[in-house]
Amino acid sequence: MTDTDTIPQAAAAAQPRSKTDLFLSFSWLALQGFGGVLAVVQRELVEKKRWMTREQFVEDWAVAQIMPGPNVVNLSLMIGGRYFGLRGALAALSGMLIAPLIIVLLLAALYGSVADTAAAQGALRGMGAVAAGLITATGIKLIAALSTNAMGLPVCIGLAALTFAGVALLHLPLAWVLLGVGGGGCLWAYRVLGNGGKA
């Protein structure tokens, strides 16, 4: 058994100590989240801080993704609000936005003078490849959390495959994929939960 296998049991007791803890934790998270924040968020909140289990993370991240706005900002609001209400949500949101805002403004001023150089363009392409790798690795790591999903692992994998096909292969608008595949998933989950968790 690995450390990550014991996370769900340990995570139930862990939570942010204060609104300051929320602010500092999300500030640190935001400063690490260049390009692909999913890997960083999962590692910090599930594996290090143990504020949530992998299953809770998958569920909350799904909700954060279908809400308008940046996923990780939505997640910070959800977690802050869960523990400390409106003030907690604002503390987590402030942590997510203040430091990156300052850094982005400084980088924008610096980048304007070197934007056309080959070195700057190559660096951006390299960061994009790394971000894609981080997101893929985290997605693979989180597949294990689907084994306890009420819909069952085969249905979850099928929905994921349909989503991938719709977005990556057929180039369908994200809104249509969310409505079609997401709506179908919601109806199936409703049916399963209505039968006491049996398909």
Describe the structure.
The protein is mainly α and 199 residues long. Helix content is 76%, strand content 0%. The chain has helices at residues 7-11, 19-32, 37-48, 54-66, 71-114, 118-142, 153-169, 174-194. The longest helix has 44 residues, at 71-114. It is globular, with a radius of gyration of 19 Å. The two termini are 30 Å apart. Residues 1-12 have low confidence and may be disordered.
Structure at a glance:
The protein is mainly alpha-helical and 199 residues long. The chain is 76% helix and 0% strand.
List the helices and strands and how they pair.
Layout (H helix, E strand, L loop, with lengths): L6 H5 L7 H14 L4 H12 L5 H13 L4 H44 L3 H25 L10 H17 L4 H21 L5
Task: Provide the descriptors you would attach to this structure in a database record.
199 residues, mainly alpha, 76% helix, globular, disordered N terminus
Q: How would a textbook summarize the main sheet?
A: none
Class derived from helix and strand content: mainly alpha
Distance between the termini: 30 Å
Number-wise, the strands total: 0
Helix content: over 70%
Q: What coarse outline follows from CA principal-axis ratios?
A: globular
Number of helices: 8
Radius of gyration (Å): 19 Å
- N-to-C order of helices and strands: HHHHHHHH
Question: How confident is the prediction overall: mean pLDDT?
Answer: 82
Please mark out the parts with pLDDT under 50 across 5 or more consecutive residues, or reply none.
1-12
Quote the beta fraction.
under 5%
